[in-house]
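Hi R.,

Here's the input for the zinc ion complex you asked about:
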Amino acid sequence: MQEIKISNKQEYLDKKYPFSSIPSLADKRYCMQCKSEIVVGEYKVFKDEQGKEIISCPNAPACSGTVMDWYKLH
Ligand SMILES: [Zn+2]
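And here is the predicted structure with zinc ion in place:
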């Protein structure tokens, strides 16, 4: 998969975030794949073979987690 550079990361999240409660870039989440705390704004975007853009864990490609694997910290 090919990494895409995002110039305005908040705007991209506002458009592409798959859930209704859009986080801000400074928010923290817990990635279930690499079991690490991440800062939302450090996310990466990869384009798959079908051209679909996937919001991925900042620890990608070592971590295969995506936005679907992020949980809110309590
Ligand atoms: Zn991860």
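One thing worth noting: Residues 2-72 form one domain.

Cheers,
M.
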